[in-house]
Design goal:
Helix content is 4%, strand content 41%. The protein is built from one helix and 13 strands. The longest helix has 6 residues. The chain has an eleven-stranded antiparallel sheet with strand order 3-4-5-6-7-8-9-10-11-12-13, with no helix packed on it. A two-stranded antiparallel sheet has the order 1-2. By secondary structure, it is mainly β.
Length: 148
Amino acid sequence: FQNQSWRSIGVVSYGTSDSTYGDITVYTRISNHLDWIQSYLPAWSQAKRTEFSNWLELDWFGYFFSTESDWKYHLVFGWFYPLSSNGESFWGWRCNHLGWWWTGYGVYPYVYSTNLRKWIFVDVNKSSHDTMIYFDYENEKWIQNQIP
């Protein structure tokens, strides 16, 4: 159990399922075979499909629109570019003072802004496509930013 979700680290590749005393059980580390496993998975296999065409949901990031290009659209964060289709981290662009931003599984809703040159905490529940509300730790206050 890691970052509020289950992760498979290894699987039994040989032996009994209960590993009783005296049995020989061999475990295989999944990370050693990750490229091979992912080659058989469809893109965005960890995202839930919604009833609306091309809308997907990641447990940790929420709903986003998947285009045929590599760019995706999130209602709060706008356009983002996933480094891969595994849903682990994203670069995005907002045409406000945030500019390029980055976030990833395990750090979200903390976001790094290249324009601000710092980490911020985004209040996703209060933010929308035209207003982003985040906590600026350096100034120790909440910022409400209108997005053009």
